[in-house]
Design a protein that fits this description.
Keywords: Iron. The chain has 79 residues and is an alpha+beta fold.
Amino acid sequence: MMTDRLKDLSPGDVAEVVGYEGADPAYRSKLLAMGLTKGIEVKLLKIAPLGDPVEVMVRGYNLSLRKAEADILKIRRKS
C-alpha cells in the first residue's frame, strides 16, 4: 500500500488517514481527539508560504496543523 504525507499533497487533494508514524501515545491521542482517526477523509485546503501550518478539512470543519503534526499522519490519496 502506497502512503504519503500531507506535505505531498496539493491544495484541493483528498486523502484518507491510514495511520500514524513517530508519535508517542499522548500525541497520537491529541490527533485522535481532533478527529484524525484511521479511515477518515481529509481535504488539503491550503499550505502557508513557509509550509507551516497546513489547513485541512476534516469531518466538515477546517483544522490547522503544524508541520510536525501533519508529518505524523500517514495518508493514502483518493482519486
